[in-house]
Queue: 2 jobs
Job 1
Amino acid sequence: MKRVLQDLSFEGLQELCAESGEPKFRADQLYKGLMRGRRISEIPGVPKPFRARLLETFEDEPVRIREVLTAADGTEKYLFELADGNIVEGVLMSYKYGRTQCVSTQVGCRMNCAFCASGLGGLVRDLSAGEILAQVLAVNARAGGTPEKRAVTNLVLMGSGEPFDNYGNTVRFLRLVTAEGGICISPRNISLSTCGLVPRMLDFAEEGIPVNLTVSLHSPSDEERARIMPVARAYKIADILRACDRYFERTGRRYIFEYSLIAGENADRAHAEQLVSLLRGRPCHVNLIRLNEVKEKSLAGVSEKEAYRFLGVLEKGGLSATLRRQIGADIGGACGQLRASRLGGNQPPEE
Ligand code: SAH
């Protein structure tokens, strides 16, 4: 595979152009083009010989939109093809305040959570910072946006992969996507979700990137958590909470817990009460999600009524909590479902 031009910051492009004996404005030209989601071969004004040299070293289109599925509620599911033929997924959700894109940080995932489709084939490879960025640039352009007038206003790092298992590239991506002069999405509009890799959470607190740090908790007890999330054997909830507090100290940002309700595993009243004792008084928010059932897994979700009952216990206990509305379920909205269905013989996702 060739290199990815989107891996370079504006300063990196300036160096590249200087080394190639190109005038200064060439870097502006390239950067503007890339930020508009253009391929190298489409960026206007680049002289033929330099363009040809660039294309010898860099992928013309490192991330290509291969397929878009639109759900009844307007949610769009993207299938991206990378230069080496690997596939990752993305989702674009429309809300009153704007549009949120869900991006992937790895092809596959090695965390192997019991409910998640992304881990089905293990980790294939990390995405580079530019490959993560190119997903955003491609979708923003397709949705009619520019860097000046963005169509994608918010990001969640909740596609396939564990962002902190690809730490360096994820942090570099965050610097690129928030850079002034680029697509410049505010860190406050970005949520990074981790399964709780404590050492990387502590490192991240020192990076000075005040995104919304989100942790997949899914259980108030270490023992039960380890049944659905193997990573819980390595990192205890108490250590996760300490790392979250550190993040709050350093950034002033409250943190968020994801809690996917799974029948018979983590969704009883006792779990809700335990969650209240664990989190009461902390600067945090709990996002409840009804499990998106994955056909390769035997776990089941709870009814809407049960989910609201769980929410009620949290609220009564003084926690800030919401139940996420389910969107895009008819297009395989949950992590890794669409890719899994495409790898398994090109069948459309099941309704
Ligand atoms: N690796 C990161 C990002 C994963 S995806 C992490 O673990 O946080 C974002 C969220 O969706 C996580 O909270 C994940 O646990 C959850 N999730 C994955 N598959 C799901 C499913 N089938 N139903 C409901 N939530 C799911």
Job 2
Amino acid sequence: MSEKALHKPLVFSGVQPTGDLHLGNYLGAIKNWVPMQAEKPCIFCVVDLHAMTAEFDPRALPGKTREVAAGYIASGINPDTSIIFAQSRVSAHAELAWVLNCVARIGWLNRMTQFKDKAGKNREAASVGLYVYPVLMAADILAYKATHVPVGEDQKQHLELARDIAQKFNNDFDAPDFFPQPEPLILGPTPRVMSLRDGKAKMSKSDPSAASRITLMDSADEIADKIRRAKTDPDNLPESRDGLANRPEAENLLSIFAALTDVSLDQAIAQFAGKQFSAFKGALAEAAVAKLSPIRDTMVRLMGDPAELDRILAKGAARADAIAAPILAEVKKITGLS
Ligand code: AQP
């Protein structure tokens, strides 16, 4: 029987509540999730256990978790159909992660480039949690036997690892096809949004410069100001895609414009060919404000009622647990833990 027939289609993805949601999280992930809801059942998690892998403020974590949930809903995720919840509220994630830690090999984890990037030079001082982060991510997906995982470019290696872990579990415990081989879902047109201060660095929540990212909570004035100050080069905008070679800032800003206005990069290039950055930046700011302001307004409204957000998250956690608990029970039986 084919894998597809064995496992019911299910989408799983998540965002860490490590800081303010930004344009990269929106264009590279959340915006692409919205249409998936019409095609497959979806689980969108706020991965707070992952947020603990680097330095974090325990007092700020509950608010950040609510903020990510509000960002999902404001961007078009429907909590009545899709499941939205906080990872820590469903114990199967942590329990399965332990089992999978004992399946994954140290050699596999040693190859993970994100650990090397995030741990930086002082690797010895990084948390063990950061090191085994990809195993927890595998547990997030496999706890639901999810079949499809929309991931950014930076997470592709982790998904490959999740596939290897699933395969090894099935082989080691003689449980053929127990876990599916989760597939990456085709990324949107903007797999990587880069920093406004450096076209070669990813836009990131943890970049110390707030000017490097546009957040979903930025006001119209803040958005326009960050775009005005965004790094550029001295030339006018190119006439064709070839003209973007070695111009990472121009490419990034044009790609952002294309994604915000739902046109192709080529169309965006044609629209601003030969123009000065100053004229283009005005149009970019207008497009960003038009797209993000309604999201911000909804987020502000939702965050004004934390009890309602907690209710949505608790309902989501109960629905998630109902799927994960029987799978975890089977894992325990297969591994001799029950
Ligand atoms: N710059 C980006 N461009 C496109 N997609 C991005 N994603 C993140 N940054 C960009 C995608 O957003 C989803 C959630 O990411 P995450 O919060 O789980 O972790 P991350 O990738 O590490 O995001 P950040 O913003 O860079 O957070 P910090 O600074 O905490 O590490 C993922 O699908 C990711 O690909």
